[in-house]
Design goal:
The complex is a heterodimer.
Chain A (H helix, E strand, L loop, with lengths): L1 H8 L1 H23 L16 E5 H15 L4 E4 L14 H5 L4 E3 L4 H13 L4 E4 L10 H8 L2 H4 L9 E7 L14 H5 L5 E3 L4 H13 L4 E6 L2 H4 L1 E5 L11 E4 L4 E5 L3 H16 L3 E5 L2 E3 L3 H11 L2 E8 L4 H13 L8 E5 L9 H4 L3 H13 L1
Parallel strand pairs in A: 2-3, 2-4, 4-5, 5-7, 6-7, 10-11, 10-13, 13-14
Antiparallel strand pairs in A: 1-8, 6-12, 9-11
Helix pairs in contact in A: 3-9, 5-6, 11-15, 12-13
Chain B lengths: L1 H16 L4 H8 L64 H26 L13 H10 L5 E3 L5 H7 L3 H9 L22 E2 L8 H15 L5 E6 L6 H12 L4 E7 L2 E2 L2 E2 H4 L6 H6 L3 E6 L3 H18 L3 E6 L18 H10 L2 H12 L4 H22 L1
Parallel strand pairs in B: 1-2, 1-3, 3-4, 4-8, 7-8
Antiparallel strand pairs in B: 5-6
The chains are: A alpha/beta, B alpha/beta.
Chain lengths: 374, 393
């Protein structure tokens, strides 16, 4: 005991021990919780100076840029003022004032409607819904109001300057109310844009595109990546175009389509397929769910003839269903095998059984085998 | 050990709070030596909870709403058009009062013609404003014409006051090629960017929290304007209404929430809608400045709106106004109100207490209006409205 105390009091050694213990603890937790291996992106040289950031830091950086450039821009939501429960708005109140980064009462419909009103009078409104699972009280405001504002007013009024951010997806221990992927619920509504990034570099560029876009956007952030995904992210402002999918790995035999965290699962599956089956997979990150980039997927399917679509959200009426239907209609004669959907099951998202519910690499790999052997 | 620790903590405390706090610190600790039944810390005299700092009481006392006196209804003018207290007379000019009267009656005439147009199959749907003209014109006249309006659907008079032409009303209801809304919405879903009137949407109460957000935007822009949001006592039951009032109060938004309590939400009477003292009683709960007004008294509505506007703009805080009125018409052309209220009830209000009749009596007393003027205006307004309607069909 005394010996240990002696060690700990020595400043540098203490730091070393603590950081190692923390790292080990983090690794163990992460290994238990995550069903994928994160592969960092490389920043583009044209975007200039970079800093090491995780996902919440890159979101913070994007909002920092937005507030700096646009004096009408405001950030608000539950617990946003002190930095947010995921720390996305940390430091911004101190930098831009409490009239620009502020708490709201606890009401999701209030938050979204407040943002609509702000956007109607010309302010850039960045609303945070604490978890995507809690966005449903605001469903009416999003679907009946935000999405239809420009159309129903004959373009007299619009709320295009509204962006709604919400953490989504599995996190290892979130159960049914902290894990849901809600993108398909909103993909059924014309007038909205729905975006999900796969990592920090993508998140910053896509979020800034949403903020400056002239239509209301829902930006869903895979919460498991907030701390676990780390990349060299450009410090200054840059945008990544919406409604453009990205081919992140070229291949010739099977097309794998996903978005958000699932992209990393697909990347691993592509490696497995190459190593074990000598099958070359093309991996596409859809990035924008609505309106989505059909052409990139179709071009790839024309080349490969096989399509596997994968997302965490439940399979029935999930976005994979839409892609599969559209692709079979347009590329029927190019297909060598039925399109496969590897998705969450049609159940409430489980707690202790989460690992069995995930569309993990083994399930996707089975689907790859199936389309190859058809 | 624990005593040692507490002494150490106490010393540290003194180090940071000496010497002015020393005496209060001693006071704080002293009562612990007093007999148990007499112990009362100085800082326990008042509640210090984060959520309340009111007072402590030692007897249990529920608050019984029925034992409280109802919130009074402010009025300036009685049903005979007489001003109660000349100091409360808004003192509007003859021209303004005549414009008020003409707009109220023109709205009435337009309603009759468009109601009939629907019955004749020329338009798909319509909602009249009968009986509520006073709330529309009274508020509109008191506002800055650039104050932004978020309406529910029965506020056509506000647009009329601001200069929306009969043609523009007709274009929207007929869904003509000249409709600014491009024929996309059902009749009466008006909107005008030039007249600062946000296009109506059918879902109820959704406009309310939006109005709070817009008002926050105005506050930040420091443009000296406010937002007014109209809603019915039925819409006030929606969750959006709660969010709107709470957001406006906590985020200090310059917005007037104007409730038109007309007694019915389609067929649902107020008795089935709420059990408290109307909508006004909720304002206090949100920490909002609140008033209740006789909605059939256009001067009272004018006065309360004018004063509310001052509070909004000067103090950056919301105001809730509940205007008590009566919906004389059916809810819409799809509704027959005889199924849920007696014809006698409706005709009582129509005969005894309409804002138009009250204002006319006032004008006649002032010598600004007479039977000839009335007859002439009736013909003229009817001609204007029917001409527009016929052109569209």
């Amino acid at each position: 005991m005394a010996a240990l105390r002696g060690l700990i009091t020595k400043g540098s050694l203490q730091k070393f021990v603590c950081s190692n213990v923390r790292k080990e603890f983090k690794n163990r937790i992460f290994a238990r919780c995550s069903h994928f291996t994160y592969v960092p992106d490389t920043p583009q040289a044209k975007h200039g100076e970079t800093t090491r950031m995780n996902l919440f830091q890159s979101i913070n950086s994007a909002m920092d840029n937005a507030l700096e450039q646009d004096p009408t821009a405001v950030i608000f939501g539950e617990d946003v003022a002190f930095g947010g429960v995921f720390r996305c708005s940390i430091g911004l109140k101190a930098k831009y004032g409490n009239d620009r980064v502020f708490n709201t009462p606890l009401s999701e419909q209030g938050i979204v409607a407040f943002g609509i009103g702000l956007a109607v009078v010309g302010a850039t409104a960045i609303a945070e819904i604490q978890f995507a699972d809690y966005i449903f009280p605001a469903y009416d405001q999003i679907v009946n109001e935000a999405a239809k504002f420009r159309y129903r007013t004959g373009n007299l009024f619009d709320c295009g300057k509204l962006t709604i951010r919400a953490p989504c997806g599995a996190v290892g221990h979130g159960a049914m109310y902290h894990s849901q992927s809600v993108e398909a619920q909103f993909a059924h509504t014309a007038g909205l844009k729905v975006v999900i990034p796969r990592g920090p570099i993508q998140a910053k560029g896509l979020l800034l595109s949403c903020i400056w876009d002239e239509n209301p956007c829902i930006f869903l952030e895979p919460k498991i990546l907030y701390r676990s995904a780390i990349e060299e992210v450009p410090v200054h402002q840059y945008t990544i175009p919406l409604s453009e999918a990205e081919v992140i790995l070229e291949g010739k035999d099977v097309t794998l389509v996903g978005y958000g965290t699932q992209v990393h699962v697909l990347r691993e599956v592509a490696n497995m397929a190459q190593e074990r089956l000598n099958v070359s997979c093309e991996v596409i990150d859809l990035r924008t769910i609505l309106p989505y980039d059909f052409e990139t997927i179709a071009k790839s399917v024309v080349k490969t003839g096989r399509l596997v679509i994968s997302h965490e959200a439940p399979v029935t009426m999930g976005f994979a269903t839409e892609i599969a239907t559209a692709i079979q209609a347009e590329c029927f004669l190019n297909l060598e095998a039925p399109i496969q959907r590897v998705c969450g099951y049609d159940i409430p998202f489980p707690h202790v059984f989460e690992p069995f519910c995930m569309p993990d690499k083994f399930r996707v790999f089975e689907a790859v085998k199936k389309v190859i052997n058809f | 050990m624990s005593r040692l620790l507490s002494r150490k903590v106490f010393k540290t405390f003194l180090k940071f709070h000496e010497p002015c706090c020393l005496s209060s610190m001693q006071q704080l600790l002293k009562p612990t030596r007093v007999l148990a039944n007499k112990v009362q810390y100085i800082n326990e005299d008042r509640p210090e909870f984060p959520g309340s700092k009111s007072v402590f009481v030692n007897k249990l006392k529920f608050l019984w709403p029925e034992k409280m006196e109802g919130i009074p209804v402010y009025r300036v003018m009685n049903r005979k058009g007489e001003i109660y207290d000349s100091s409360e007379d808004p003192g509007l000019s003859k021209e303004t009062v005549i414009k008020m009267y003409k707009d109220m009656t023109m709205l009435n005439t337009m309603d009759r013609i468009l109601y009939e147009s629907q019955r004749q199959g020329r338009i798909s749907f319509y909602m009249t404003n009968f009986g509520e003209e006073g709330t529309h014109i009274g508020t509109a006249a008191a506002l800055n014409p650039k104050d932004l309006v978020f309406g529910q659907y029965r506020e056509a008079g506000v647009l009329m006051w601001r200069g929306f032409t009969l043609d523009q009303f007709m274009n929207q209801c007929y869904g003509s090629c000249e409709d600014m809304g491009k024929g996309r919405q059902m009749p009466v879903h008006y909107g005008s960017k030039d007249l600062h009137f946000v296009t109506i949407s059918s879902p109820l109460a959704t406009q309310m929290p939006q109005a709070s957000g817009a008002a926050y935007g105005f506050k930040r822009a420091q443009n000296g304007l406010c937002v007014i949001c109209y809603f019915g006592e039925g819409a006030a039951s929606e969750g959006d209404a709660h969010a709107a009032l709470n957001f406006a109060a906590t985020l200090e938004c310059p917005v007037i929430f104007f409730c038109r309590n007309n007694g019915y939400a389609i067929s649902t009477p107020t008795r089935d809608q709420y059990r408290g003292d109307g909508i006004a009683s909720r304002g206090i709960g949100y920490g909002m400045v609140t008033a209740r007004v006789d909605g059939n008294d256009v001067f009272a509505v004018y006065k309360v709106t004018k004063a509310a506007r001052e509070i909004c703009v000067q103090e950056n805080r919301p105001v809730l106004i509940e205007a008590m009125t009566y919906r004389i018409g059916h809810h819409s052309t799809s509704d027959d109100s005889s199924a849920y209220r007696s014809v006698d009830e409706v005709s009582h209000w129509n005969k005894e207490d309409t804002p138009i009749a009250r204002l006319r009596l006032y004008m006649i007393k002032k010598g600004w209006w007479n039977d000839d003027a009335e007859k002439e205006w009736k013909q003229d307004s009817k001609k204007q409205a029917s001409h527009g309607s016929l052109c569209k069909s």
